[in-house]
Write a structure and sequence with these properties.
Immunoglobulin-like, 1% helix, 346 residues, mainly beta, globular, ten-stranded antiparallel sheet, Jelly Rolls
Length: 346
């Protein structure tokens, strides 16, 4: 059974979550330049990351300085090889997992990636960089993965199930050339996987490990993970296109005792809402000339109450007279992405 829920909350809701960070890396202490020393994946490079590429070139894996995030990892796609790929890999996750506290049977992996948008070739086929986070067990079997397709602008997460690899969730982006955080939970106690894009309030969940061919859940504990970019072009052509690299940052692995009810990290301080509390009308303004396309009013459970479509202005006045007294969430669909603001009607 698959369930997708939109959470429009401004706090982290949890029930006795005992977070234990097992690994955290923002790459700020790494030297600029090659992260790897061996593109054959045999000898570890900076931070014990292993690198591998069809072209056997360490320059495909770089520590660079991003204008927003600071130091991060840049992986270049193997543009000369159809079906080729480049990856960086973190191994020995089983040793980290074995240090978790008793009862922490939820694995949380989070990271940031820079979302770019791809284009079609002139032959109307697609070069599809397959940009993945892949999580493996000790037998090198994929447990779950998160994939970003820049030509569709779509993030998809899949996990192991009795029918193969099934969708945990997916979301299509509307704003590009910006950083997004992605979160993947594997709940070994309840045999579920959860996928989140916190800034967009997106959360998808499905059952995992339901096959009778999974007699021992411990066989699917994590052993390694990698970030990769590969090229898949239907015509077999190796043509340089505008998506030639991917950037990753802020990788963190945490052990928890339960999956939080909602994790939402909205961008804040973009809009001014007044008066708030309000009785009849509320004004939404911003000094950054961000165009507000649509506004949805949601209750605190994330249920849609009212839609205001085709606003297309940076300043908006909303009539709240029809609302009952209480707390609500404004979901602002804008030229810069989706933002959320809390209001109170009195």
């Amino acid at each position: 059974m698959r369930k997708v829920v939109l959470f429009s909350l401004f706090v982290l809701l949890s029930v006795s979550v005992k977070a234990q960070v097992l690994y955290s890396e923002n790459f700020n202490n790494y030297n600029l330049g090659n992260i790897g020393s061996d593109a054959n994946g045999v000898i570890a490079g900076q931070g014990n990351w292993y690198t591998w590429s069809n072209v056997k070139d360490n320059s495909y894996f770089q520590i660079i300085t991003d204008n927003i995030n600071g130091k991060c990892v840049k992986i270049q796609k193997p543009v000369t090889i159809y079906g080729g790929y480049s990856l960086i890999e973190k191994r020995n996750l089983d040793a980290l997992w074995n240090t978790r506290n008793n009862g922490n049977e939820v694995l949380k992996i989070e990271y940031d990636f820079y979302a770019v948008r791809g284009q079609k070739y002139n032959d109307n086929t697609l070069d599809i960089p397959d940009n993945d986070l892949l999580l493996y067990n000790k037998n090198d079997k994929a447990i779950a993965f998160v994939q970003y397709n820049p030509y569709l602008g779509k993030i998809t997460a899949k996990g192991f199930d009795n029918l193969g690899y099934m969708d945990i969730g997916n979301i299509t982006l509307s704003v590009f050339n910006k950083w997004y955080k992605v979160v993947l939970y594997i709940d070994y106690s309840n045999k579920t996987a959860t996928f989140e894009v916190p800034a967009l309030g997106y959360k998808g969940t499905r059952n995992l490990f339901t096959s009778t061919n999974v007699p021992n859940i411990q066989d699917y504990y994590p052993s390694k993970m990698n970030f990769s970019i590969s090229i898949i072009h239907p015509s077999g052509l190796a043509v340089v296109q505008n998506v030639t690299e991917m950037k990753y940052d802020n990788v963190k692995i945490t052990a928890l005792d339960t999956v939080p009810l909602a994790v939402f990290e909205p961008e804040i301080n973009k809009f001014s809402i007044f008066p708030n509390p309000a009785s009849s009308f509320v004004s939404i303004k911003n000094d950054n000339n961000i165009i507000i396309n649509d506004v949805d009013i949601l209750n605190i459970n994330g249920e849609l109450i009212k839609e205001f479509k085709n606003i297309n202005d940076s300043n908006v006045d909303l009539n709240l007279e029809y609302l009952s007294n209480g707390s609500y969430i404004l979901k602002l669909n804008t030229s810069n992405g989706i933002f959320f603001e809390k209001i109170i009607k009195r």
